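Hi R.,

Here's the chain you asked about this morning:
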Amino acid sequence: MMSAPYEGDEMILCPLDYTDFKHTCAVIVSGDGPNFCGHALLHVGDAWYFHVAGRNSLPKFMHESGYQRYLKETGKREIRRWIVKLSNPRGAHEKLHDLMEKQWLWLVLPNNCTSFVEEVVQAGGSKAGMYFNCPSAEPFA
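And the predicted structure, written out as tokens:
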């Protein structure tokens, strides 16, 4: 029996401080199967990634080495990174904590990987986001 590809781990203890949010990016990777829109992850600090993977599951996190493993095991490739400037890093940190503790109900368009990243950066004072929730086809701005 093959094991599922690595998608990250559930967060028990947050490795971040709000000052890590001085460097924040939306990372866009290729999608699975027929998903031509791709997938969005949040990159914070020098090496941490956060995302939702699954229909009704806790969000996942991984260190840079885990991100490389995730790309390899899922067959995804990084498409681009969008730097997101935050005026309220503490707000983003608090929102990320809140989201990481709750199951994420994936509703395809209104509540997906992009909206997860948007919620965190918008709590950090950014207006960045996507209109069509198709990360590979539009800027995260």
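The chain has a mean pLDDT of 93.

Let me know if you need anything else.
M.
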